[in-house]
Amino acid sequence: MNRQWMPFVVAAACLISSCATSPHASRPAAAGNTRNQSATLTPELVSAATAAEVKQVIATEQAFAKTMATRDFKTFITFLAPDAVFFSGNAVRHGSAEVAAQWQPYFDGPNAPFSWAPDHVEVLASGKLALSTGPVYQAGKIVGRFNSIWRLEADNNWRIVFDKGEAVCSPKS
Description:
The protein is α+β, with helices and mostly antiparallel strands. It has a single domain (41-167), classed as Roll (Nuclear Transport Factor 2, Chain: A), CATH 3.10.450.50. Helix content is 29%, strand content 29%. It has helices at 6-15, 43-69, 73-76, 95-103, and strands spanning 80-88, 91-94, 115-116, 120-123, 129-138, 141-152, 158-167. Strands 1, 2, 3, 4, 5, 6 and 7 form a seven-stranded mixed sheet that branches. The longest helix has 27 residues, at 43-69. The radius of gyration is 16 Å and the shape is globular. 26% of the residues are buried.
């Protein structure tokens, strides 16, 4: 497979699912994430580098979520990659302008309509692409999970390139 397509294949695999897993599923805490060790790098180097990048992505995701809580749409759009793709139900928004137009109404009014927080982050050994996922809350109740792919840009800032939320599956009786 052509190496340039690998990030997109990884992103697509992460984004395809029928609904989110239960919020009570066993997942490691984001701060404690580790990655599978690469055979081409020493485990010590991979672990140290990845741990630092995981912390950066966690901080970035938290700052991104804070824009909703503080109703700061202007800062929200700074987290979007120019080529960002956001999935919303059957609609797909391409590019930061379309994503911003879709999300702007969520910033109307004094109270945020929902919130989110990462509970799991993975970063590729290259340190250039990351997945963050976690619960989405509405009125204090978990209503879904988000899955976001972040890319480390040339300016050394993480920007979101893919985002897709899923409703939490109802427990089967």
